[in-house]
Amino acid sequence: MRKHGVKIWTVRAVLTLLALLVSGLLGAWLFLRGSLAQLDGRRTSTGLSAEVTVVRDAQGIPTISGSTRDDVAYATGFVHGQDRFFQMDLLRRVGAGELAELFGARAVPLDKSHRLHRFRARADATLAAMTPAERRFLERYAAGVNDGLAALASKPFEYALVSAAPRPWTPADSLLVVWAMYFDLQGMLEPRELARGWIRDNTSAAQLAFLLPEATAWDAPIDGDSVPVAASPLPESAPAWWGKPRKGEPTRIASADFVDSVGSNNWALAGSRSKDGAAIVSDDMHLGIQLPNTWYRLALRFPASDGTMRRVAGVSLPGAPPLIVVGSNGKVAWGFTNSYGDYLDLVEITTDPSRPGQVQTPAGWETPVRHEESILVKGEAAEKFEVRTTSFGPVREAGGRSYAIHWIAHSAQAINLNPMKFETVDTLDAALSAAATVGIPAQNFVAGDDQGNIGWTIVGTMARRAQPGIASTFPLTLENAGAGWQTALAPDAYPVLRNPPGGQLSTANSRQLQGAGAQVIGDGGFDIGARNRQVRDQLAALGAGADVAGVYGIAMDDRAVFIAPWRERALNVLDAAALDGKPQRAEFQRLLKDSWSGRASIDSVGYRLARHFMWSMHDVLYGAANGEMASLDEKAAAAAASSRWPAVVARLLDEQPAGWLPSSYRSWREVQLAAIDGVIEELTRDGKQLSAATWGERNTATIVHPIGNAVPFLKPWLSAPPDMLPGDANMPRVAGAKFGQSQRMTVSPGREEEGVFNMPGGQSGHPLSPFFLSGHRDWVEGKATPFLPGAAKHTLVLAP
Q: Is 184 assigned a ligand-binding role in the annotation?
């Protein structure tokens, strides 16, 4: 009887545990289900003037229709709040420097660097200066966000995992999201200037001019075939640091994790060259990619000033003012790429013991305003630190020097709601005029209208310099502070190009102009230009009568035009003598020859070897310098100082000057072989075979929800598949493990039904949503799916 009783109790205990487990899993599942967006039905919402309908297609892409723009803003906030609130929360916290409240002490250093700019206080001031209509627009959006969040049966799942409660949305938060994009798009300006300052301080004038050229043969400006800048004379000798390794590291270092995160392409074809006579505009903005995707697709319908219903389609940025960022309004289509102009100065400030508490700036001696900032830290006491602000901006330290950060993002013109003008402009000229009034991080604006006109300008806040030129790309001293920016640039001073003779325009983050307008923009870190040259040449090759499919196809161009010369250089030094007794070098040579497709294709070993060879040469020559620059800022490096370094190294390999040969090598041939050996060492580590080092093996997507990185056991459910991706930097099809084409769009205004679009993630940030990864496979494969939302599958009505 005792044994029988024990068995009964054992069975009961097991059944009880199973019941508890099932109950727990069911509860967790129900909790997760409770935070899914409402797709159908009818809801009452206070503050609406009339009904608003939210019609979604099979991918969850909404068309929002309302009788006023404010009502549409409210409904946009509602769907953003339901589908993407946690993403929005992270963006406002990035802008304000408040991530540690969710993620603890590890986020404090980033929060401090961002809190230095006090953007939350600036957001409050900007909001107070807006018109009542502008504030009402942001208030309606915030009300929609909060009502959408409150309508969820349970809070977004991310908050349960970080043990926090979502904080209500405010109008000022939408401005912080735009400042978060300033960090993303202009955040390299400080480390770039510090890197350039270090190189200036550790070279002669002649060496500096050679190492940091203003242009190369790769540049492809939109107002000419090339930039007519003569190559600097080659100095007789190199700087003392040249060709030396970082301290404590071996002489040869193969770059295992190099990143080229400069991105975005856009181009336009005039109606004179299109099949139907309307302009065709294409755009693919390159950003860090995670889940959910940066962009949220939608179409908006609301009455225009003439009473007709206006339809605007494209992408929005959840949390930012509820506008179409890039898209088409039926009359005009437009796209952005980061402009990489000169929008920030580091101004060195000095002190004097006889003037305690004061600093000397270009404006004279002043007492910085001191602000005590308190950073809330999850699980720990708040961390307080002091921010000192001068008339030239907040103060930061680097390399034993103090600098005021004079950034256009601090200006009163940095953010406004003028991007809304693009929703209703009817002509290219109206769009170009509107662009010069917009307050966002400055972008290349390429647009076309339904009459076939195309044009380019800069959209966003630009800096006006009394003395434009190269001096402002280095840290400024009191003596040359006149090169710094003075005020925001007036709209009538923006450079503009309309209907160029060739009937095409393209930008890809490289130098835009060869003429006077180039000085107005300045150089804030232009890409080397190879990508835009490839785009431009492919666009020209389309000839006349092109259609949307042909124009879109350029975004899929992964030809290795830029890397091909590096393959040839490696093959040239791998002669019989170099291979004698070196079987791995022989294998390297074989793979360069046999596993080379001429593209950054996933099965190509040759592409990966040639690319690694280029970067290994960079590490051999710039290793010591990069180590020193990193002590100033972790992002400061030779590649940050100038993207044109490959052209500098290529010239040295072609001319092979004795004065620039690193002291530890006997010949330039030996330098190149050392770089090749470094690649071999890196790629065969841990017993790996060189033949297995395909480009796809290295270029495998790691697209993950932030919570997947914070809670590793959930990563499989919060990640996109680990697809091998063709494409790379310095070609139109930009693709990296977690950086690349965040969307692809090609559209002809007035013919939006023929337009195409895809992006790496779906509409929802919720892993149980059918829209979490909807469209991802199309993006991986480059499939041209429709630009406009499809047939209605769900309808939600928001009523007053």
A: no
For the chain, how many helices (H) and strands (E)? 24, 28
Q: Where are the beta strands (DSSP E) in 231-382?
A: 265-269, 280-284, 286-288, 296-303, 309-316, 326-328, 332-338, 344-349, 359-361, 364-366, 369-375
Q: Tell me if 371 is assigned to some domain.
A: no
Q: 251: pLDDT confidence band, cut at 50, 70 and 90?
A: very low
How many domains in the chain?
Answer: 2
pLDDT for the residue 217: 95
- The CATH number for 598's domain is 1.10.1400
Is 193 marked as binding a ligand? yes
- Three-state secondary structure call for residue 464: strand
Which pair of structure tokens corresponds to residue 687? 């017993």
Range of the domain at 583: 558-636+655-698
Catalytic: which of 35, 264, 274, 748?
A: 264
pLDDT band at 231 (very low <50, low <70, confident <90, very high): confident
725 falls within a domain: no
Eight-class DSSP state of 291: S
Residues 314 and 463 in one domain: yes
Q: Is 342 annotated as a binding residue?
A: yes
Which residues is 735 bridged to in the sheet? 740
204 as an active site residue: the answer is no
Give per-residue pLDDT as tens, 262-274: 679 999 999 999 9
Cβ neighbours of residue 361 closer than 8 Å, sequence gap 6 or more: 347, 349, 390, 391, 392, 404, 478
Point out the domain boundary residue: 556, 576, 609. Answer: 556
Q: What does the alpha-carbon distance between residue 761 and residue 313 come to, in Å, rounded to a whole number?
A: 18
**Whether residue 417 has pLDDT greater than 90:** yes
